Amino acid sequence: MNFDLTEEQNLLRQTIKEFANREIAPVASELDEAERFSPELTRRMGEIGLFGMLVSGEYGGSDMGYIAYVIAVEEIARVDASQAATVAVGNSLGIGPIYSYGSPEQKNRWLPDLCRGRTLAAFGLTEPEAGSDAGATRTRADLKGGQWIINGSKIFITNSSSSMTSVIIVQAVTGIRPDGKKELSCILVPVGTPGLTRKPMKGKMEWRASDTGELLFENCAVPEENLLGERGKGFRQMLASLDAGRLGIAAMGLGGARGCFDRALHYANQRYQ
Predict the structure, then answer these.
(1) 7: number of Cβ within 10 Å
(2) Neighbours of 136 (CB within 10 A)
């Protein structure tokens, strides 16, 4: 089996490497120090095709595949983990669930702008008492009069509080199953919906220039058709999305290690003693 990259993949790596060195490296420290998310830089990453890499052209994606996606995240992370997080989470947890489980209407509404990097989507999963144990979700969504009425909160949600965020995918309890366990579903909540409050979170130790937010839902009402996929399938949707997202996080780790090595090697070669 041949594991060499194709000519197209090598060209992609070189293109993104040059972009990262030219556009991200000069401002990375400044953005990190100020804990500032950059919509301008995010849009430029969208312009070169870093969002929607796993989505078909029908919805505005490039359909380049997972190897290309991993290469892209790795090269961005080599220079700045914050921008790599924006790209990785934007593709896997923002675009991914809508592309995998959304109705044609939902895909047509949200994916074109998401794939072009004009807007961002967030996956509202983690809660103060439900992180790794996602089944402990307390946020509720009750179906009343053709609307989901959502109450609860989410925390540490990437790409959720910036001016670019257009929609939140919310995992919520929508009922109790016959076996007595929680029925979990995912619901699309457009930004600007009354009852949704978004608060940026500061003071992070890492990814300081990526957008992390806290979400509050107080009688937040969205139409019944905003349900993502089948009712009661939210937990499976979440697990599948996280599985795909781990590839991006692994690429971030590799890219960060390469960046550290490159800087250490440069310093060792120029240091005089």
Answers:
(1) 8
(2) 11
Using DSSP's 3-state secondary structure scheme, residue 191 falls into: coil
Q: pLDDT, tens digit, for every residue of 229-246?
A: 999 999 999 989 988 889
pTM: 0.93
Produce one character per residue of 110-134: b if its CB has 16 or more CB atoms within 10 Å, e if not.
Answer: bbbbbbbbbbbbbbbbbbeebeeeb
Kind of pairing between the strands at 212-223 and 196-200: antiparallel
Rounded to the nearest angstrom, the gap between the alpha carbon of residue 223 and the centroid of all alpha carbons in its chain is: 24
Tokens representing 23 are 């556009």
Residue 37 CB neighbours (<10 A): 24
- Rounded Cα–Cα distance for residues 12 and 193 (Å): 39
Q: Which residue has the tokens 């290309």?
A: 68
Give dist(CA 34, CA 272) in Å, integer: 33
Amino acid at 113: D
